[in-house]
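User: For a reading group we're discussing how well predicted structures match intuition. Take Cytochrome b561 bacterial/Ni-hydrogenase domain-containing protein. Before you show the prediction, I'll give you the sequence so everyone sees exactly what went in.
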Amino acid sequence: MFNQVRKTVISKYQAGVARIRQMSTATSNAPANGLELGQYSGGMKLFHFATGGSLLVCVGLVNLAQYQKGKKKMDTMYYHKSFGLLAAGLMVPRIFIRLTSKIPNPIPGPTWEVMAAHATHAALYAFMIFMPVSGIVMGYYGGKGLPFFWTTVPGAEKADGKIAKQAFENHKLIGHYAQWLIPAHVGAVGFHFFIKGRNILPRIFPTWK
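Assistant: Thanks. Here is the predicted 3D structure of Cytochrome b561 bacterial/Ni-hydrogenase domain-containing protein, as structure tokens, for the group to look at:
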């Protein structure tokens, strides 16, 4: 059984490498319009901006809170947590659609470019999952519950400061560094548009014509 699993993993890895190499050789013939490069499904487009928008607001609010004090800071963090909980809820259907819908081929380019795109997407998904989950764990076991705009979801009946503290430290550490994945992701769009002359937005933009 182990050998069969090993052979399957190796086979999929080799197929993936071959696919990346094939895409890298097609750079010069790649179309410039995102519609010709293939599109994500309507559901993926919708949840891309829904989850991405929620995450972007979360990052913006927590950075804003660093320059505030007192009630203003508390209010800002309340909405930071609310949007974080919203992002957590949106990630469930997004992952389901991602796993069940047809995904367009990678944008043709050099091997390093295609691999960098895959790595960035994987890191972004990990970021979008880890941050809301660690925030939920922190709020649930911290004793204050989970703020959600007009209400608060109750936390654990018995608070556990040790778990809450560990979740907070991980949440803060990962968030501090991983937030830079967002400008890197947006910057990649600019790289394709301004440097390579490709408008790739139609692949993911819901109403782009």
